[in-house]
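Input record (Table S2, row 410):
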Amino acid sequence: MNLQSAAIADHETLSRSRDPSQLLDSLNRSASELKVWLHDCALPLWLAEGFHGPDGGYSETLTLTGQATTTHRRSRVHPRQVFCFAEAGNRGWGGEWQNAVERGFDYYDRTYQLPNGFYASLADHEGRVLDESFDLYNQAFAILAYAHIAKAQPHRRSELGPRATQMLNNLKAAYAHPKAGFEEASPRKLPLCSNPHMHLFEAAMACETQAGFDHEIWRAQADDIAELCLTHFIDPESGGLREFFDGEWKPHPDARGRIMEPGHQFEWAWLLTRWAISRNRPDALQKAKRLFEIGEGHGLCPVRKVAVMALLDDFSVHDPLARLWPQTEWLKSAMLLAVITEGQERQAYLASAMRAVHALQLFLDVPLKGLWRDKLKADGSFVDEDAPASSFYHIVCAIYELEDCLARLA
Ligand SMILES: O=P(O)(O)OC[C@H]1O[C@@H](O)[C@@H](O)[C@@H](O)[C@@H]1O
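Output record (6-O-phosphono-beta-D-mannopyranose complex):
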């Protein structure tokens, strides 16, 4: 038995274990290892090689030998990297995070923000905008970054709270859907999508408790998206969450309307659980648990033991590729659901979280520690490509959520 299969066997034995303390011990060990990986390898590497100072911004990718590339940079990468360094700062990481947050975000503002207040979609590595088109997804990440910078750097709160409100007002003025949520474009472009709403939901929940922000408007915004999710994104029969819709928030009539992504079942499960706890909504919690059940029951490849990209609405596998980020969402949702449940139910979530840790570790297992692979193919081999910066936000969030949930379970 080689080392990797020995590790898998070990994880499987533990996952089946009925002894809660053994599972918790194992999760605690993994959490410590992941935190060391994050603080000693990944953050230093992505700061040294992936951040290029006040005039350079953040790289889209690093080669697997740790060199920056000149790949065009999607808008989302900057606020996501800012989120990572701001959160690391909040957690006491000793690197030069202040500079990366402040200068990295200034670069993002200067390079991507358009005169209409929205952020462009793509620029090259020298800061020339290549695609100005509007994407709700990108604006959601800007708002998430505003909230996390304000948390990490109190001196910017009075600037960022009003900027977040202004962004929301701009979004509503230009893209509000007549019924609920937001359009993809103006004039209308179909399908409408749940995914950018998920990130706006995440951002709204970050803003609603952040000092310096208008808690009332963000709370209302989070509530609107949660209700849209409960009434339209989630299929009332199966309980699965769809991706694409027609103009009335009904499943899109072509094949796209049938897609349900396991990673998004987990990601929404985590967000909805947080919202359900905060608003005391047992109905939402039930739906969140069902999302998790679908992700776990239908979205995991039995051979590779990873969450795959896409199912259809009969829960058959539509895309067997496995990306890194769904594994992190599996881990976050399993851990949070473990925190709020008891007995056998908690045990099952902890066992699932252990399997998710292992799935994540598969992607982090590269020679230069601090980097990752992103795509595991159906045949068990990884796509040979550079490490995408955009996955870092998922990894950071999962490692800190694992740590927080374990602390709550101690
Ligand atoms: O595809 P990148 O940019 O790595 O993002 C990773 C993923 O993040 C998730 O939260 C979702 O929004 C996915 O739709 C997205 O693909």
